[in-house]
Amino acid sequence: MKVCIFLFLITLIPSVVVAENAYVTDQFEVTMRSGPSTQNTILRMLPSGTTVEVLEADPESGYSRVNTASGTEGYILSRFLMNEPAARNQLAGMRQQASNLRQRNQELVARLGQATASRDELRQERDRLAKGNQDKDAELVNIRRVSANAIDLNSQNQELQTTLQTMNHRLQAQTSEIQELKDRKNRDWFVVGAAVLIGGILLGLLLPKLRMRRRSSWSDL
Q1: How many CB atoms within 10 Å of residue 186?
Q2: What is the DSSP string of 94-110?
Q3: 27-83, superfamily in CATH?
């Protein structure tokens, strides 16, 4: 008797050793029948998560008359219907949303990188234009300074030209005056020379007569 009990206990040990947790699967199929009872014909098997339109619910039989998206009409146990999609389907939808969000995030990151690169290029272009503008401003200042100097030089040149013209006029006037004085001097010398010549001729004519008169006077004494 003791041997039998011992053998019985040994047979129970493996079942205890291999015991582990398990979960009921959420994947199952629901029978869709032609009527509200198990006696009616099975029209098709609907997987969990299938969307149906509830046409009528019968609390007494526990069945609901439904219509599938493909147009099949039949009866399903009401306890297998839910107002919201199954958790598995919701999880799949959430996973899909998460995947879409990740893809959207990657697209936004790529666009942000492109926008940042474009911003950096615009900054570089702005700095280059600012540098060019500064160079142009400096060049414009230089041109204005040169132009101002040119204007001053032109004004000075005009003043010098006016002064030169005035001096030329004065020089011409003095030259004319000097020439006139020379002409007058020549005329004076000419008159003096002529007068001397005439005086010499007259003296040459008168002196012999005077000598003859003196001789005659001495003779009369």
Answers
A1: 10
A2: HHHHHHHHHHHHHHHHH
A3: SH3 Domains (2.30.30.40)
Distant-in-sequence, close-in-space partners of 50: CB < 8 Å, separation ≥ 6? 30, 68
- Give this prediction's pTM: 0.35
CA distances from 130 to 116, 124, 133, 134, 141 (A): 21, 10, 5, 6, 16
Burial of 36 (0-12, 13-18, 19+ CB in 10 A): buried
Which residues are 47's β-sheet partners?
29
Domain boundaries, the chain: 27-83
Q: Which of 42, 45, 48 is nearest to 25 (CA)?
A: 48
For the stretch 172-219, pLDDT in tens is 888 877 887 777 777 777 777 777 778 777 767 766 666 666 555 545
